[in-house]
Amino acid sequence: MSENSPMISVITPMYNAEKFLSTSINSVLNQTFKDFELILVDDCSTDKTLEIAKSFSDSRIKILSTEKNLGNPGMARNIGLDAARGEYLYFVDADDAILKNALQTLIDTATETNSDIVYCSRWFVPDDSNFTQLIGKMSANLQKSSNAPVSDDLKTRIWDELCMHGMHSVLWLCLYNKKVFNGENKLRFPNFLAEDVFIHFDILCAGYKITKIDKPFYFYRT
Q1: Which pTM value belongs to this model?
Q2: Residue 132 in contact with residue 27, Cβ under 8 Å?
Q3: How many whole angstroms separate alpha carbon 85 and alpha carbon 6?
Q4: CA distances from 129 to 1, 13, 14, 123 (A)
């Protein structure tokens, strides 16, 4: 990594997210871990999404826009992946949020365990919830649990972890080493719905070292 490259690239696809975008962006900017860039990819929103994104004056924010609507957040994520300069990648949806110690805990765990992927849990939150209040309350009370390695055996990994213990196949619960996407076989999201489930299953089967933190750092707005 060059001296000017951030440790983590956070990638957020945006489409007509004016109602929740500010909360999502603020949850990233307010992280205790500061060495990151936030890549916002607007997919031709027709509301004030792009205007809201541009209202933030933080130098860590990079805003990209598609020339036409791509119709799938995976395609916008691919644009973010191509622009990412970080050694690690993290994805946050435009209507969701993360606890203020999420990135610090994830990167610390990746370093301590020499893991390619660090997996955490999440809260499901109604869409009318006050994320700002929840983030403050949960951050004050949440303690880091012990790390749990995910089996290197493919059969065990799929059956025990994925099927039995609820390791959900969604990308926004994980911090990824960039090599997971930019390795010898460049991995990008497919152009169909549930693209994150399919790509995460591919990643799970690829044999990368994964560590789980059994604590919810991500707020998923239902």
Answers
A1: 0.86
A2: no
A3: 7
A4: 39, 21, 20, 12
